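Morning F.,

Quick status update on the modeling queue. The single chain you submitted on Monday has been processed. Sequence for confirmation:
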Amino acid sequence: MELSVGEATQSGQRLFTGFVRDLTERQRNERRLHELQDRLLHVARVRSMGQMAAALAHELNQPLTATANYIRAAKRLLSAGEPNLDRVRQAMDYAVEQTQRSGEIIRRLRAFVARGEVARRPENVAKLVEEASALALVGAKESGVKVLIAMEPDLSDVSVDRVQIQQVLLNLIRNAMEAMQDSPRRELKVAASALHDQVLVEVSDTGPGIAPEIADKLFQPFVTTKSEGMGIGLSVCRTIVEAHGGRLSTEHNPGGGSVFRFTLAAA
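Structure tokens below.
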């Protein structure tokens, strides 16, 4: 229930009025909306992982292959007449390091795809960008994309749901990489800086830019420039950012391509 109390004067007398509103239905509708948004975000995350499956398989294959090689080397050293135990220990240390790298990749994937409760906590912006980039930039080297991460020092923490904001970053970074597939110059920049009592995050590319005919409706659902796209990625991104009290926008990159920027409230 919500109670609003007001005061008025009539014939020299003070009168008080009370208005009571039943909020049950409104809260029920809000819960339904949040559940639908959560499902949509989950679908978007799973779809992103599906698109990245081949590249992620390649990313995991490297440390797993290295682990197997180090263990085989250790076995060969141990089977020698007088094994060099220092080299065996070194090989096993390398194997452990590569195994931990594989586990870290899997941990990030599970945390990203998992559908959990929305929980806002103070988060370090640099850490958010680092973890999201680790997933989003899979295959960047193979596709010839030059990546620059520019973080302003001593940025305030932001009050966000970590997985949701990483979903925004992943979508924007993957979109930027896809936009530069046929570009002669492929440069991706992710930057974060202070803006009054907010933190500004920018993702820029050197692709062909956004076609004028869709620029005004880019963030609407089911609007896409991709032949196989669903057109919900940027719509979901804007919903997430605005739910966090920020704003998502885009403009032409002076160096060619596009710049997507969004704001987050400092914690």
